Structure formats: C-alpha cells, structure tokens
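anyone seen this seq b4? input:
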Amino acid sequence: MSPLERKLYDNREPNPSIMSDLKSSLQADIKTAMKASDKTRLGVLRLISAAIKQREVDERIELTDADVIAVLDKMSKQRRESITQYESAEREDLAAVERDELEIIGHYLPKALSESEIDTLINAAISDTGATGIRDMGKVMGQLKPKLQGRADMAAVSAKIKDRLNA
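predicted toks r here
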C-alpha cells in the first residue's frame, strides 16, 4: 500500500465537503449524544446513520438531503406502523419505545404541512396535470411526491387524491 493509499484508508472521518447538511448534522448529534451518554438517542441516531450508509452502499451514491429525507420518511412510516401494531396487541411498552424513536427521527424531517396546505397543493397538482379521473392519479402523485416527501403522510395524501378524483 502506497503512503497516499494508507493516508486515504486511515482517514475514516467522513469528508465534510461532500457531506449533505442533514448528514453532517446527524454526525454532530451522534457525537453530542455520545458525550452526554444519552443511550436512547444515540441508538436511534446510529440506526438512522446505518440506514443512510446502507442505501449509499447499495446504490453506490452519495445521498443528498432529499435522499436522506426519503430515508427518514421511510423510517418514520415504519415506526408509525409498528406503533399501530403494538397498540392493537396491547403492548404499550413497545409502542412507547417506537414513539420515542419516531420523535427523534421527526427532529430531522422538515416541518409537517397543515391540512389546508396539503389540500392547496393537491388542488394545484390536479389542475396542473389536468387530471379528470382515477386513472390520472399517478400523474398527480408524481407531481406531489417531491413537494410532500417527509412533510406529509403519503398514504393520507393518496386517499385524499382518490376522493377528489372519484368525486
């Protein structure tokens, strides 16, 4: 191994110049949680970091903030579904753990949109795409997904679009 290769290999700290703002914020929060001995927060932050790194390795790309938000959105959706399952099984202890994780994940997601803002975006997307029936739902969802990713529950948005297009 040449000296240059060794230097690159030994430099295991992520390169901040190519790292997205969310990922660098996450790394800083991991260090803060380690110093504060906050095991719960540290565990969730490491889960987030692992999910991001897994996607980067799988797709062989450096994730942008939008990609990181998509990963976080997926993780929050998984937590919401788990909470529902645990509550239906009357396992409040496990549901509480999932709620705590969801709260920490939610810290990194953009501010959620209100119902009226979502309705406004849906109406605009329907008029922009010229959607007239349920068969045009894909066009509407395609236009809305980048705007709503991480800011709204896409399943609820989908249901609203179905209602509007069926009416």
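The chain has two domains: 11-106, 115-166. Helices lie at 3-10, 21-36, 39-59, 65-88, 92-106, 115-129, 137-148, 154-166. kinda curious what u guys think
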